[in-house]
Design goal:
Length: about 375
């Protein structure tokens, strides 16, 4: 046997094993390097994520800027967050949303809070979930279809403001002038000497929160601010209308009083436009009630009242093809939408039954037949 041959085989085997070890070491080194690189990247991403989150949750301002922020009854945590972002009190709504979910914040109490833009989101949420920072507030609900008189009564019930004090502010010409300058939808039309209350129709019905020591102008301007938010959404349609904003507000207020259901209101608006275009009187009883300052349901109208001229009374003489001089109530959004998007039809008459259902007809004869049928059925609605 050749010993040299055996030695050569052993050497080749050792070299092979050594090479395998070196390859495995190199593979291990590469794997370790890749793992370390991956870990570093993950750490960097996590660090960046936390840095971004920290920034988005940080205070939007470096300087103190305290403002009053109102949380109204029924607002969700998300709705409050969107309003906080809109008013520049927090940087980012999505970061806020993640934070309140982690903190399991389910809601805030209605009220007026003093919030500082130099506070971070965590501080703001802590304030909103604590009674310590909240000022005592008063919630007032103003219903759709109610008049300025109703608003004044409700204010007097819930605050220290008397009805006469509220009216006094509404009758202040200089104050009305300031409001006309401030709000694009208020024009000199509201100062017509025949209008009972300049802001009738412009105080949007809703639930509002006010401070205990609220003043009449605080209530008025808070409501006007809400009206502006609504009207801003329809600004392009308003601008394209052949009717000015005061006429649209006036017509919407009549539609509000005449119809209960959304679809009916669109038809009613269409009827009124048909009558105006035909040079007819609107013939709306609710305008006559308002004209003579009689509450609906108080009593029936007299023939003298119906036939007496008044710039609000659309059943009276000299009112053919005319709208009332001003609004007769503060209406809801569906009535305003009905005026902007009326139903197209050949109807010129309508009447409501006891259930509130509105019956539409094309001719006066058809209209009278519906009235007679409703009376026979005991379904005639006496105002």
């Amino acid at each position: 046997m050749d010993k040299r041959g055996n030695n050569m085989d052993d050497i080749e085997t050792l070299d092979f094993e050594e090479n395998n070890k070196n390859k495995n070491k190199r593979k291990l080194k590469k794997w370790v390097k890749a793992l370390i690189t991956f870990i570093i990247m993950v750490v960097i991403i996590i660090a960046l994520f936390f840095a971004l989150g920290s920034y988005l949750l940080s205070a939007p301002s470096n300087t103190t800027s305290v403002i009053e922020f109102t949380v109204t009854e029924g607002k969700t945590v998300d709705q409050v967050g969107k309003q906080l972002e809109k008013e520049g009190i927090i940087r980012n709504f999505l970061a806020y949303k993640v934070y309140v979910r982690l903190k399991k914040v389910n809601g805030y109490k209605a009220g007026i809070y003093k919030l500082d833009k130099s506070y971070n989101t965590m501080d703001i949420v802590e304030i909103l979930t604590s009674d310590y920072y909240k000022e005592k507030s008063i919630n007032i609900t103003f219903k759709e279809g109610k008049t300025i008189k109703d608003v004044a009564r409700e204010v007097a019930k819930k605050t220290d403001i008397t009805e006469s004090e509220f009216y006094e502010k509404l009758d202040d010409d200089s104050y009305i002038d300031l409001l006309i300058q401030k709000y694009w939808f208020l024009t000199d039309s509201v100062k017509n000497e025949n209008i009972y209350y300049p802001l009738e129709g412009y105080l949007f019905p809703d639930t509002y929160s006010f401070k205990e020591n609220v003043k009449p102008e605080d209530i008025i301007e808070t409501m006007l601010n809400q009206t502006q938010k609504i009207f801003d959404k329809y600004k392009s349609q308003i601008d394209l209308s052949s009717y000015n904003i005061n006429e649209l507000v006036t017509l919407a207020s009549v539609v509000e009083k005449e119809g209960i259901y959304k679809d009916d209101r669109k038809q009613i608006a269409g009827v009124f436009y048909n009558r105006l275009n035909a040079g007819m009187q609107l013939g709306s009883d609710v305008t006559t009630y308002y004209a003579f300052k009689i509450d609906l349901g108080e009593r029936n109208l007299t023939k003298a009242e119906i036939n007496t001229y008044n710039p609000y009374n659309t059943r009276g003489p000299e009112m053919a093809g005319k709208l009332p001089v001003g609004a007769i109530c503060n209406f809801g959004i569906t009535s305003f939408e009905a005026v902007l998007n009326p139903a197209s039809s050949d109807y010129y008459y309508f009447v409501a039954d006891k259930s509130g259902k509105t019956h539409f007809t094309k001719t006066y004869e058809e209209h009278q037949k519906v009235i007679n049928d409703l009376k026979k059925q005991g379904n005639w609605l006496e105002l």
